[in-house]
Protein 1
Amino acid sequence: MSKLSDRLAKPIVLVGLMGAGKSTVGRRLAKRLGLSFVDTDTAIADAAGYSAAEIFERYGEADFRDGERRLVARLIDGQVRVIATGGGVFVDPRTRKLLNEEAITIWLDAPVDVLADRTARRDTRPLLRNGDPKGTLERLAQERGAAYAEAHIRVTSGGGAHGQVVESIVEALEEYLNGRGGQPPTDIPERPLA
Ligand code: S3P
């Protein structure tokens, strides 16, 4: 069978909550597949000259979301690459529709405990600076779960090694491209009547 990257006709877009590992896993996945990688938070910061956190502080969340939406629309230009998105990207209905039409979307899901541990290592996320980061992550998991669940593929990332998550994604992509989309095969012959 030909290489996975040769069979990809669309970009791969990682979605999910803060701390799920989208950037780290995305970069490694891109390397594994020989594709280029872009992270929306980094791309916004490069364009604006401020970090995502500074944009929140200076201009507020609404402006950040607007910039994020326009950036994602520009990144979906037919190039096959790996895109790691900020946690809010897939929550916007228009962006979600665009990504589900023009990309293969992967929800990197992880338990809130794992997200809380990982995000506690760096103070770069404005939404988690309110004194109760775990409570906020719990609330966001509730509020956003249904949106993330609309991704084509869901891969669970526990507290384990990112390399293992990359391999799980590769397997899930193989299944998806084979037309099963992570669902049980539909071509199982019916059991003959006894
Ligand atoms: C956000 C997630 C962050 C960043 C911003 C808002 C969110 O990205 O875009 O702080 O709304 O979930 P990561 O998911 O990469 O941490």
Protein 2
Amino acid sequence: MAKKLEFPKNFLWGGATAASQIEGAYDVDGKSLSILEMIPFMELKDRKDLSATRKLTKQDLLDSIENKKGLHYPKRYGIDFYHRYKEDIALFKEAGLKIFRMSVAWGRIFPNGDEKEQNQKGLEFYRNVFKECKAQGLEVMVTINHFDTPFPIMQNYGGWKNRKVIDMYFKYAKVLIDEFNEYVKYWLPFNEINLAVLISAFFVEDKSGNKTTFEKINESYQDLHHQFIAQTKVVEYAKKFKNIQVGCMVANSTTYALDCNPVNVFENQQKELMKKLFYYDVMIKGEYPWYSIKYFEDNNIKILKEPGDDQLLKNNPVEFITFSYYMSSTIAKEEGELTEGNLMKLGKNPFLEATEWGWQIDPIGLRYTLNQLWDRYHVPLFISENGIGMLEKLNNKNTVEDDYRIDYLARHFEQMSLAIKDGVNLFGYTMWTPIDVVSAGSNEMSKRYGLIYVDYDDYHKGTGNRFKKKSFNWFKKFMNTSEI
Ligand code: P53
């Protein structure tokens, strides 16, 4: 029996993407390589966990620039949105999307970061995309930096630990806002700002030689501080424009205590503070919270601030919260059983099922999260990513019968409507993703999230043609009927 869900009339339903995962055309119209385009594809059997990146040496990176080893770099090719955007945007419209979340590749606008003048060719591409969205009646949400910092900034300035990068970033962000404020109402300065500490650590060298390592993770709170400051500058600048709003974006790792053992409950509370709420606290409440100051002291982490930084943070909280929500996990003092993921191993929850990537499906966890964030911050909420990645193949009818995706979306939509009934101010949702893309974490095409199937394999072999999955038609119907 179909069930009708209730959502506000003007609820912003849509889909989310990121430049490095869709555009391709890595060397077209003056674009530089991004740090993500330096990461070669690695077969699943050779992947241990997050990715190949930890094993990249400095020499590997230099070889990558010219691709001396003939390796495959998936994020250089994406799904060729650069040339197919009209077709894709038309399909998004057909699926019933009202808002399209996308990101701009910094390296198209300022290839080295430190140029005086912006690259007009890069701006032209995005203007064309935004015009197309407008023509199709799609609202746009732009992520200014979705992990893909230009590699020259990493090479020449050492990345975000260098304070100069704030100015380079702000110059870039200002150009986007000046050029596109009439097309783009919603702006997110950074994607999943809480993952910045991981991303920047990819390129740190260890003492013994030239291997990259995750061990210096503490140092990257400095990178993070610079990103916080860069973000507040965008918030401050955007106040000049009446028609735009700036929000934050956090990878929302929803966690529960493994059981009711107070030791585990306390452990979860503490982890939740530093791993998640800390980020929202800084960006919404405008200051480093008390527990983070204690944490930095205890762990001997020193963050260099300049005079004025605290005031900038205080004066410029973001106007709305967005977050990605894919799964939940459990926390225990003594690590318990883990999910069998080939990307991440997470604390297992005996009540939940996991995908092949070890991501535990938890729709009620979304309602829980919405309640938690609304209660703590009381600013409007927007789910900027949510979806399910699976191995998929076209069947002989040139479609994919992705009932599991329909089920995943329906169950999450239901919990969203319940959260709204609870009293939460949730104003929109962009699924990850309307169309198959290159995976962020594992660089593969095989982990497919789309309503639309894209005929490329992990090596970018295929026609690139687009095919509607069963979920495409389901989503379209849901947009008209609100029925699951
Ligand atoms: P992929 C890890 C955990 C949660 C969200 O991820 C994450 C990641 C990084 O992999 O990233 C977001 O493609 C990110 C998107 C990404 C999506 O989740 O690894 O904002 O760029 O594609 C899904 O399966």
Protein 3
Amino acid sequence: MPFTLPELPYAYDALEPHIDARTMEIHHGKHHKTYVDNLNAALEKHPDFNAGDDIEALMRRFDEVPEAIKTAVRNNGGGHANHSLFWQVMGPGGGGAPTGVIADEINSTFGGWDALKQKLVDTGKGRFGSGWSWLVDEGGKLVVTDSPNQDSPLMNGQTPLLGIDVWEHAYYLNYQNRRPDYLEAWFNTVNWDFVNKRLEQARGHS
Ligand code: MN
């Protein structure tokens, strides 16, 4: 079954002024859609490989993907998985300090939200070119990491809990070359209820 573009769980302008409507429209409707289309096109070339219909499960077993379509699945399957998560990590009326179980873990692991936020910003600023800054669960522990291009932490056995897209397509219309300003503004969109749900799911897996 081919993969499909998930609907955005809110309106294009719901994250303004932090993320503008036009950026959201192009990012979701063009960039994400292209990853989905290219992923399906690659999988069609290899009908004997059963990719299933769960993009996260597919990226977790990336090692099993046939050599001929590995790069396409890495870039486009990764792009589909990363963006499907990204839309949910953000939400209208988000941001502020974390709540729930994740707040306690952030305090015990990083010494507080300010310290973690700084680490995520530094990681995002430090990622040369295109990629992602991540908070992941790794075997029951919170870890900050980054990835180039559309590489997914799922490929390394990690479960992404929160991801920040630092590709220019995520911010260029509004922030141009000012990635640090985008990063600061981005934190006003975090949906902590969703991040807590992800943590619960991740711990169910480990
Ligand atoms: Mn993107």
